[in-house]
Amino acid sequence: MVTTLSSREFNQDTGKAKKASEAGPVVITDRGKPAHVLMTFSDYQRVVGKRKNILDLVGMKGAGHIEFEPAKIISLSKPIGDSL
Question: Biased composition, Polar residues: where in the chain (predicted)?
């Protein structure tokens, strides 16, 4: 079920909008035109899907909390001429 609220209605009663989002998306309008959509976070995750990060892809569950600060690369090239 889709609920539509004006920006004014949304600003006056955000609790109503949050409760309505439990039943489905809430379309918030500006000057009568749809401008925003409010939905629960679980609905949002379902819509966008779970995105994998590189740690998931290499199978290192829980490794997201490892501190890692690589050394700064100063130069990737060598001077020409002096090395011969």
Answer: 1-14
